[in-house]
Amino acid sequence: MKIMFKKQGPPPAVAENATFRIRIAQLSAGYAGHPVLHELDADIRALTTTALVGPNGSGKSTLLGVLAGVIQPTAGTLHHFGGRPPAFVPQRGAVGDALPLTVRQTVEMGRWGERGPWRRLTRQDRAAVDSALDRLGIADLAARQLGELSGGQRQRALIAQGLAQESDLLLLDEPTTGLDPEARERIATLLADLVDDGVTVVHATHDLDAARSADACLLLREGRLVGQGHPEQLLTPSTLARIWHFG
Question: What CATH number did the domain enclosing 244 receive?
Answer without folding.
Answer: 3.40.50.300
